[in-house]
Amino acid sequence: MKKSLFLYLQACCPALLFFLCVLLIPGKDYAQEKTVTGIVKDSSGNPLPGVRVTVKNAKGGTITSAEGKFSIVVPDSKGVLVFNMMGSATQELFTDGSGPLSVTLRSEAVGLQDVVVVGYGVQRRSDLTGAVTSLKAADITKISGSNAAEALQGKAPGVQILNVGQPGNAPVVRIRGIGTNGDPNPLYVVDGMFVNDIQYLNSHDIASMEILKDASATAIYGSRGANGVILVTTKKGKNGKPVFNFSGSEGFQFLTRRYKVADASQYATLQNMITGTSTYPDPASLGKGTNWLDESTQKGWVRDYQLSIAGGSENVSYNISGGYFKQQGVMKFTDYDRFTLRANNEYRLSKRLKIGHNLSMSNSNITGVGSSAGARVFNALVRVSPLIKVYDDNGNFNPGQDPDIINPYAALYYGKDANNNSLRFVGNGWLNYEIIPGLAFRSSYGIDYAYDRYHYFEPAYTISSPNQIHANNSLTENHVNNKTWLWENTLSYDKQIGNDHHLNLLAGITAQDGYYNKLEGVGQNLAFDYPDYQYLGAAPAGGVSVTSQAYSESMLSYLFRANYSFKDKYLFTGTFRADGSSKFGPNNRYGYFPSVAVGWRVSEEDFMRKLSWVDNLKLRASWGQVGNNKINNYIAYSSVIQDPVYNALFNGVYYSNGTVVSTANPNIKWERTEQTDLGIEFATLKKRLSIEFDYFNRVTKDLLLIIPIPGGSTGITPTYSNIGSIRNRGFEFLVNWNDHIGDFSYGVTFSGSTYKNTVLNFGNQIITGSQWMSGSVHRGEKGQPIGYFYGYKVAGIFQSDAQIAEYNNKNDQGKPYQANAKPGDLIYADIDGDGYITGNDQTNIGSPHPKFIGGLTLTAAYKNFDFAIDIMGSFGAKIWNSARNQINSANTNLHVDWLNAWTPTNTNTDMPRLAANTSNSWGSSFNVQDGSYGKIRNVELGYHLSSELLNRIRISNLRLYINLTNPLYITKYKGFSPEVANVSPLEMGTDFSTYPVSGTARIGANLTF
């Protein structure tokens, strides 16, 4: 870390020296000039960023900042300031040089929604040349959840959100498909800090979220932008008296969908069918039996509170908040809670110098079974017999009916003491110095520090052997420190040249360094079970094992961007970034990422003036490259271990008792994504109707793939190579309508996106979900979508021995068409045409990639009432259901669909005969189900109390509301939820009996005073 800092200072020194020299250069005589400062607001008192401010009949100008503030030199001490935004009616204001000024633009001018945050700044939406979607605070806080990214679902075209039901787990986010076999997660930038997730953030602290999708928008982040970028801007203080805000809600979570497993009488019927006996002569007499789902689930309580104070003066602004979020999962003994603190302050030390900080801290706890143990629980929930009770007559847990089927309630109970505590601090301090009007230097230094502690004491117990027994108590302790610092220095220049030209330049140098350390200890047979004695020192000598690991990584970057507009009609953006990463060897350490974009505001042309119905028409096009370095560290170097059997030679030096355990690739280089985007924006009917449409073509080259060692060498781990390419091609749209009739206002927003994922090249390799072999459920190979399902295609069901004999005659080699086939078995298609079924007949049996994702939002308001409903859907994706068709033994419980299994008297069915260990269990299209769904994402009804009443008790605003999140799914899928969230591209769409997505009902209040 010290070395990285030294190198960064060495690289920065010339630039910093230049800045300091500029500060010391004597300026010209400003005796007749005055610098006027002020703030521009809308009619509601909200600051307006992106407003162009000029002096009438004078050259130059400026743009208001994100806080709506401006500073401009008036040449003759007095003059007329001109305020203009988005082509609205120009507003003029005389000034005698005194200040600060407070300017209010008319309400019909333009609102905050017309200014968006981009990388390292803000920009008027009319000047954008890239594909950017923006969500404001009101859209984000309506969704109940621990992660603000959940609010993007159905709101941002081109963005796929898969919710995760387990408390405290982040949703899976995919922007414009999957373009890598590695880590496909987007980059999050929170107030300028690069972070891997936003789980630590309180949604109420967020002012806006911008999703950068094309290369023009993301190229400023270079190697980090390949999977898209999500910018998060938190709330800041405003000039004025202190404003207190309280937000609070209480509610509960519930299972939106239930897995339809057989009850006791149905289970007995299925057992008679699967065994061909009358083991249960009267199934109906057994009733419902134990409902294991009811026993293991609950209505979990959810509460969300936040208190903030914001305000400021001419020289100081502040926003300080504290929040608490508590979530009980729908599965018993699973919980999540989080405390958050935030302080965003800004201080003006002089007319030219401002400093500030954005500081946040969170402390969270996740309790209960983790993801791997959770999969065992849900697997057991759908297999355990309903004839078995949770407890026996002595109050002990009953075992499952088979040794490999656990008691799911017991697993949840014994996992309740697993606690993952995370303490995280993310913050930065910055200074902004205006060297001369329009030229500003900004320096920011930030830290992201996380300390995670995992503590799990598991007592000794015996329920069933071998899968649910813990002979001795044990304690697992993990301590993880993850530290990252980010130092960024940028120089920006904003210049209005006459009335026609506007130029904005940005140049900078940034450095980042990270360090990770993990220490894990496992102790067996502790002397006491009491909580106060649960530490590793309580284990006997030799009963503790300790492991540790650590790594560091660093990056040095240079960036440049130029924005130019001519007459507010012709737009150009050029971006370039160079990133150097320690993850790559010296041969290819740096990656270079350019982008260009152009825009044409056709509606501003003279020939369009006669078309009064066209309020806005803009065409834009962009091309660019971004990168990805999300691989393990030290790939460019071989890894070694001590081993008394071997001797090794490293760099010509002999070492005894050492051996290489992983290969090296000193030529490994950046994964590179190249993207082209064509967009159109249109508005008509006095901007009540607006439409945006984008077409994109995104190709990822030089994929970072692990190539197996030729000859199947053992003992040495293969490393990464740059082989292959993947293409995502599609379009997205956004249609918005807003209008009002008297006191009634309403709006409709419809968005959608589609893409086609294709592997263009995998270096003649076939990649599977678990290893390099041909027998896996998932595959990635040339000409197919990455992660497609691979298996046998079902062509029907054998109805008789005669039909089987007919199929056997399809080949002249005397081989049976399908080994051991019997009436009622699935018929698999002969893909290669040789007359019998072999492994070569496996083929593409479905894609987990959706063909269309869309969202519909309806809003309405009448006087003090407001209403909103969000509907979204995903269509065309397939899901591998690993639970419904799992028949490992005769005793397993099954989905109720098996009551319609094929029998000689029930042949009109798509369910095969019910038997264990048959060809029906082969991986086939029978396991693949339609994952399409539509759902009500959110419904909210609110009421603002009368201002007359509130004024009497000195309250500015009080809004009460009721809210439902995920209350209804419409789908044919047979599992808990069609939202199957797997991080790995080669496990996409596989339902491993994961934690179900739940619904939430809440009541709440927003109070401002």
Protein model, in words:
The protein has a 22-stranded antiparallel β-barrel. The protein has a five-stranded mixed sheet with strand order 10-15-16-13-14. Strands 3-2-5-6 form a four-stranded antiparallel sheet, with no helix packed on it. The longest helix has 23 residues, at 2-24. Helix 6 packs antiparallel against helix 7 (408-414). It has nine helices and 53 strands. It is globular, with a radius of gyration of 32 Å. The protein is mainly β and 1009 residues long. The protein has a domain at 2-25 and 38-110: Immunoglobulin-like (Sandwich). The chain is 8% helix and 48% strand. The model is unreliable at 1-31, 107-113 and 770-775 (pLDDT under 50). The two termini are 47 Å apart. Strand 26 (474-497) and strand 27 (501-524) form a beta hairpin.
Keywords:
1009 residues; mainly beta; Immunoglobulin-like; 22-stranded antiparallel β-barrel; five-stranded mixed sheet; 8% helix; globular; disordered N terminus
Topology:
Layout: H1 2-24, E1 34-41, E2 52-55, E3 62-63, E4 69-74, E5 79-84, E6 91-95, E7 101-104, E8 115-118, E9 121-124, E10 132-136, H2 137-140, E11 159-162, E12 172-175, E13 187-190, E14 193-195, E15 206-212, H3 215-218, E16 229-234, E17 240-255, H4 264-275, H5 292-296, E18 300-312, E19 316-328, E20 335-348, E21 353-367, H6 371-381, H7 408-414, E22 419-436, E23 439-458, E24 461-464, E25 468-470, E26 474-497, E27 501-524, E28 544-566, E29 570-581, E30 590-601, E31 614-628, E32 639-650, E33 653-662, E34 671-684, E35 689-701, E36 704-706, E37 720-722, E38 725-741, E39 744-761, E40 767-768, E41 778-780, E42 788-791, E43 794-797, H8 801-808, E44 826-828, E45 843-846, E46 852-862, E47 865-875, E48 878-881, E49 928-930, E50 933-944, H9 947-952, E51 957-971, E52 990-991, E53 998-1008
Parallel strand pairs: 1-7, 13-16, 48-52
Antiparallel strand pairs: 1-4, 2-3, 2-5, 5-6, 8-9, 10-15, 11-12, 13-14, 15-16, 17-18, 17-53, 18-19, 19-20, 20-21, 21-22, 22-23, 23-26, 24-25, 26-27, 27-28, 28-29, 29-30, 30-31, 31-34, 32-33, 34-35, 35-38, 36-37, 38-39, 39-46, 40-41, 41-42, 42-45, 43-44, 46-47, 47-50, 48-49, 50-51, 51-53
